Amino acid sequence: MTSQILLHSRCFFKTFGSVIGHYFTLRPLSYWPDKSGLADEVGSEDDLYNEFRSSSNRFGHPGGGGEQLAINELISDGSVCAEALWDHVTMDDQELGFKAGDVIEVVDATNKEWWWGRVLDSEGWFPASFVRLRVNQDEPMEEYLAHLDGASEGGGASMGGPLGPGLPCKEQMRANVINEIMSTERDYIKHLKDICEGYIKQCRKRTDMFTEEQLRTIFGNIDELYRFQKKFLKALEKKFNKDHPHLSEIGSCFLEHQTNFQIYSEYCNNHPNACVQLSKLMKIKKYVFFFEACRLLQKMIDISLDGFLLTPVQKICKYPLQLAELLKYTNPQHRDYKDVEAALNAMKNVARLINERKRRLENIDKIAQWQSSIEDWEGEDILSRSSDLIFSGDLTKISQPQGKGQQRMFFLFDHQLVFCKKDLLRRDILYYKGRLDMDQMQVVDVEDGKDKDFNVSVKNALKLCSPGGEEVHLLCAKKPEQKQRWLRAFADEREQVQHDLESGFTITEVQKKQAMLNASKSHPTGKPKAVTRPYYDFLLRQKHPTLPTSLPQQQVIMLAEPKRKTSNFWHNIGRLTPFKK
């Protein structure tokens, strides 16, 4: 395999050295040994381009049809399973849900992007990019230890006896995990260095091919990750005991740097945009040749750029798995035990925070689209203060002083509560009627009976009051359980606001403006707005009758508005109606 890659590399430079020479200064051809007799083996420029295109690894999965066949051959032998790198949350009964760290039995990998698998008694489709293959794995550690225990009866080592060079089994396992963490961390640093020096550095030399905005989109803040990871590795090296790895105390390193790991949030959020931008460029031949030349000059392994860029996304998810394994083989009496336990919780929280931020950023486009579908909108945009829908539903709003009830559709976002009126004929059209600032409101549970403030009899009611009592709003639900759900939702809204404040979660003005711009493009000025359903319907995914047709974003439920055919009858009635709401 190595000789084939080297042959491929030599052919590439010999035939297209003049082309790549326009991109950046190459090493002289004399640098590549044994060049004789290779020219005849090289095809045309179009052939080479097609070869690169066909071997391009999408979403970090190397190989093409040959590898798929190899995987399926292994599946036929019952020897392939996969480890989940991400949570896969799904509302589709034909998809397989799992959590990061779960082991999935791969049943069919014929399709490149979606595989069929089994977890316990559940089967379904799952995205291949969410997992990594584990072929011919060793038997579970519990069985291995039991095997050792059985061997001890025949004169072998017991579970508490030495395993390897004089270490008890559990201490040897801890040493192995420590060595694995240090090894993967050093490899990861080299990986980041190769991207920064092999790709970014060369791209910045070619201002005629790349703008700074393009580079920022493709590579995100990976240079910032590189600087941080170098510091983190130095901290690990100081705590690493080379002579006795099982005595290393690395848990404190994760605790000291847990806030710094949050910079991965920006990278993970940008990664889908990077894939889109890179996909556009890879349709142009000169960019295919350029990126391949970058890889070869840096002597990087044969993986496409999008595969390299996926690694930081996978890395931040791997830390909790490694720490969980380390904790498993750390005795409670070990000096590092409490720090490893705290580090595991800290890194789980980091991964959870990154996932939540990604979900929130994915949702702002849907919120902007929701606002654009509301008729007669007044005041500031919903995204100026809010980024998440907490709950929505129908409530009756009692108005003073007549005590008249009005049916309204309420949408509870973080920081504000928006209420709308439904169209009398087209019930999926909403008219803006107002909003309440939840930062200035207190929620009061109202008992059934006559309300003194409004002088009306109420049932399943609650009040929203300003601290001084100047502003009071009385809302009634149809059923007691609906009222309780709203009370929980108001409590959830306050908790989320507090959590965002503590974690520092914000949405930039650029992101808000871009979301509103995208929404305005979908509803051009002067054209009638498309009939849309309320925002909570966005949370319902379309059912996949067969194989899913698109790759979901990692660890995030894709929100999609169900499509439906508009009735011409209701459209005509709406045009002829003589009154306006």
Strand content: 5-15%
Structural class: alpha+beta
CATH homologous group name of the domain at 170-364 = Dbl homology (DH) domain
Order of helices and strands: HHHEEEEEHHHHHHHHHEEEEEEEEEHHH
How much helical structure, as a percent, in the residues? 40-55%
Shape: globular
| Major sheet | 7 strands, antiparallel
Quick take:
By secondary structure, this protein is an alpha+beta fold. It contains 15 helices and 14 strands.
Task: Give your account of this protein's structure.
This protein has 581 residues and is α+β, with helices and mostly antiparallel strands. Among the domains are: 68-137, SH3 Domains (SH3 type barrels), CATH 2.30.30; 170-364, Dbl homology (DH) domain (Dbl Homology Domain, Chain A), CATH 1.20.900; 379-507, PH-domain like. The protein is built from 15 helices and 14 strands. It has helices at residues 2-20, 45-54, 65-76, 141-152, 169-205, 212-219, 222-239, 251-256, 264-281, 285-297, 305-328, 337-373, 480-503, 509-522, 568-576; strands at residues 80-84, 103-108, 114-119, 122-127, 131-135, 389-399, 404-413, 416-422, 430-437, 442-446, 449-451, 456-458, 461-465, 472-476. The chain has a 7-stranded antiparallel beta sheet with strand order 9-8-7-6-14-13-10. It has a 5-stranded antiparallel beta sheet with strand order 4-3-2-1-5. A hairpin with a 2-residue loop joins strand 7 and strand 8 (416-422). Helix 5 packs antiparallel against helix 11 (305-328). The radius of gyration is 30 Å and the shape is globular. The N and C termini lie far apart (72 Å). Mean pLDDT is 76; it is low at 1-43, 51-65, 135-165 and 526-581.
